[in-house]
Specification:
heterodimer, A: 224 residues, alpha+beta, Alpha-Beta Plaits, 6 helices, B: 254 residues, 2 domains, 5-stranded antiparallel β-sheet, 3-stranded antiparallel β-sheet, 46% helix, extended, disordered C terminus
Chain lengths: 224, 254
């Protein structure tokens, strides 16, 4: 009898202990993961994830189709040269290794902007869905950086001067809306660099050059 | 029961109970004292949103895993296609180079890992709480300085920087490739063996330390492991608006 009561007490404590451990872990796993986000931030996160997951689903479908075609070709003894060419073209276009054309926006920038101001514009263009960007004649790829103090901005060593253009291929309306909305990046730039004027013009067709950078690292190798 | 017998009886269950209670007390204390982020929101309307975000994040992870898996399978089939004329070999070589350029291949090599963490200092009276957090702009500034110092591939908490990567603020955290990433931020960069000395010598990086680390206590640290691994980009590379330009003057490079 005495022993049984002890066991019940221990069991009860163990139960509460287990419960607390689970609560603690769950809290850390979900709620705390987004603890720094307000309801409004969470809404933005959900919208972002929704868009992104749609894109990812389309990519999965494309890759699935490619894989099926390649498998069928292999079974038939076909060398799949057309598929390889299509794949190569798609990846080179994305990487900036080939020239690109399409609808988008032209940003005309006048006044003494600095390198980080140009970087902010490029970042916002990407956030709004730009697929390819060039600053004057320099295609923007990883490694391309705009630097310099106000009025002395340069990109990859090329001075940008008092007036220059940034071209971005992507959905023209979305790009324009995102840049020019109140409180958007152009409004923010206006607050820190009041002498800089940025005009956004939607266009039906832009032609962007390929990058002249070597994008294959010399200090790394594929981790296969 | 004699006193002696009593003492001998203690270890069996009272000790167990005592240890369990100690553990319980410790956990309660840990729960209460758990140091949360600087800004912590709690409200009724958050719960469903957190749930949706968690589900979408799980879905995203499944999708990215499928993408990486499909790409591996495609690459392996493409690589095994045999031909006599060497056309396929040439195409495959060019594909590998293009995939590396696009960030679709994980890389390993020399480099550094820089870590940015939120400040531990209390906010001074006339400053904003936000100044003491690592912002998207801070991360972009460091990434730009790393490129300038000769970095050849960069990832932030496992998110590879690609031609379409945006880094934006979201509350006290950031989105990289639309992926939710929170502090501390580990920026892994592949580059020449002297990448860190080059970075430390750059005026922009010195300015960054002067403007963010010194006044606000943003914590900047770095590691120089023997090798740095950069993961592959697991997003879409299929563009919807951009088309290859028909003109034949496209760069033959890469």
């Amino acid at each position: 009898m005495h022993v049984r009561r002890n066991q019940i007490t221990i069991a009860a404590v163990a139960f509460v202990l287990g419960l607390l451990v689970i609560v603690q872990l769950r809290t850390q796993a979900s709620e705390a993961a987004y603890a720094g986000l307000s309801s409004q931030d969470l809404t933005i996160l959900v919208a972002n994830l929704n868009d992104r997951n749609d894109q990812l689903r389309r990519e999965v479908a494309t890759l699935d189709r490619d894989l099926t075609r390649l498998t069928q070709n292999t079974e038939r003894g076909d060398a799949s040269i057309n598929e390889l060419r299509t794949d190569l073209q798609r990846v080179r276009l994305y990487a900036g290794l080939d020239a690109a054309s399409g609808p988008g926006v032209i940003l005309t920038i006048r006044g003494p902007i600095d390198g980080s101001g140009v970087e902010d514009l490029v970042n916002e263009l990407r956030n709004a869905g730009a697929e390819a960007i060039s600053i004057e004649d320099v295609r923007v790829v990883p490694g391309t950086v705009a630097t310099g103090l106000p009025g002395l901005a340069r990109v990859d060593g090329t001075p940008l001067g008092e007036m220059f253009e940034v071209l971005a291929i992507g959905p023209p309306d979305k790009l324009t809306g995102s840049l020019t909305r109140s409180g958007g990046i152009i409004a923010q730039l206006g607050a820190t660099l009041p002498d800089v004027v940025v005009d956004v013009t939607p266009v039906e067709r832009l032609d962007l050059p390929a990058t002249d950078r070597n994008l294959v690292p010399t200090n790394g190798r594929p981790l296969l | 029961m004699s006193a002696r017998a009593r003492i001998r009886a203690i270890p069996t269950w009272q000790v167990t109970l005592g240890v369990a209670l100690l553990g319980l007390g410790f956990l309660i204390a840990a729960q209460l004292a758990a140091e949360g982020p600087r800004i912590r929101y709690t409200s009724q309307e958050r719960a469903p949103l957190v749930e949706i975000a968690t589900e979408l994040q799980a879905e995203r992870e499944e999708l990215t895993a499928s993408i990486l898996d499909l790409r591996r399978q495609i690459q392996s089939i493409e690589g095994s296609v045999a031909d006599s004329a060497g056309v396929v070999k040439d195409l495959n070589d060019r594909l590998l180079a293009a995939r590396i350029a696009a960030g679709l291949i994980p890389l390993t090599g020399t480099g550094i890992v820089l870590q940015l963490a939120d400040s531990l200092e209390p906010a001074a009276p006339d400053t904003s709480e936000g100044d003491y957090l690592v912002s998207a702009r801070d991360i972009r500034a460091v990434v730009e300085e790393l490129w300038g110092a000769g970095a050849e591939a960069i990832a932030i908490n496992g998110e590879r920087i690609t031609p379409t990567t945006a880094i934006i603020d979201l509350g006290a955290s950031v989105l990289v490739n639309s992926s939710y990433v929170s502090a501390p931020y580990q920026i892994a960069a592949l580059g020449p063996p002297d990448l860190y000395p080059r970075l430390a010598a750059s005026a922009g990086f010195v300015d960054f330390i002067r403007a963010r680390a010194q006044p606000y206590g943003i914590q900047v640290s770095f590691a120089e492991p023997e090798t740095v691994d950069i993961p592959a980009f697991a997003g879409t590379v299929t563009l919807r608006y951009a088309r290859p330009e028909p003109s034949p003057q496209a760069s033959p490079g890469g």
